[in-house]
Design brief:
- By secondary structure, this protein is α+β, with helices and mostly antiparallel strands.
- It folds into 2 domains: 5-74; 77-120, Orthogonal Bundle (Multidrug-efflux Transporter Regulator, Chain: A, Domain 2), CATH 1.10.1660.
- The protein is built from 8 helices and 6 strands, in the order H-H-E-H-H-E-E-E-H-H-E-E-H-H.
- It has helices at residues 5-10, 16-23, 32-41, 50-56, 80-87, 91-100, 116-120, 142-148; strands at 30-31, 61-66, 69-74, 77-78, 105-108, 111-115.
- The strands form 2 sheets. Strands 1-3-2 form a 3-stranded antiparallel β-sheet. The protein has a 3-stranded antiparallel β-sheet with strand order 4-6-5.
- The longest helix is centred in the N-terminal third of the chain and has 10 residues, at 32-41.
- It starts with a helix and ends with a helix.
- The relative contact order is 0.10.
Length: 150
């Protein structure tokens, strides 16, 4: 018998999580009623509640209320290299953002990934504190007059 990664991670012997995830298409969104119908169709002993299943796989799904109906779609995940290219920074900088949890970074399947919708909201790098440079010096003396005349 095969089980999905989510079931394995939480110690569930069933395939209910995988069945619900498989019902969410790659490009389109699906409403909660369709997911519940798929959930109800899975015969599994000791099956966790529908809300519990959604909670377990929530990091993989984007949820949105539209016209009073809840829709779900799969999140798109980007690698550090993808983020570095998009943001015009080094891969090391993108990895540092990931370690700090910036730009929607999470560990997915043991790898550092960035939620595409979080990265695409920013069109520039995160702001870095600016350190003031040296103040301009005003030379107002006899030596300065020599340079002014040149």
């Amino acid at each position: 018998m095969r089980i999905g990664k989510t079931d394995f991670d939480i110690g569930n012997m069933g395939r209910v999580h995988q069945a619900v995830m498989d019902a969410v298409p790659e490009e389109d969104a699906v409403d909660e009623a369709e997911l519940r119908a798929v959930y109800d169709g899975v015969e599994e002993p000791n099956k966790p509640a529908f809300e519990t299943v959604l909670g377990h796989i929530s990091y993989l799904l984007a949820k949105r209320q539209i016209g009073g109906v809840t829709f779900y779609r799969r999140k798109t995940w980007l690698s550090s290299a993808d983020v570095a290219r998009m943001m015009d920074v080094s891969i090391r900088t993108a990895q540092d953002w990931g370690k700090k949890g910036q730009q929607g970074a999470q560990r997915v399947g043991g790898r550092l990934r960035f939620a595409a919708e979080s990265v695409m909201r920013r069109d520039k790098r995160p702001p870095h504190p600016q350190t003031p440079g040296p103040a301009a010096q005003v030379w107002d003396n006899d030596k300065d007059k020599q340079y002014d005349s040149l």
